[in-house]
Fold:
Amino acid sequence: MTAPFALQFTQPRKPEPVTPFTYDPERQLSVCPDGSPAATAYPILLRTETTSSTAGSATHNDDD
Structure:
């Protein structure tokens, strides 16, 4: 028996990227290990591209 159609196109899950910052829920922003905001660490931004979520931006017209 062959696999269902959709399963013929599945790919292995990619590992989560390792980032040099963590999210601080009290401050509600991403911070570097030294406690400084990750958004001001330009070398980190150049390597990781972003520190903020874009969830919903593609699905809600009122996000503009």
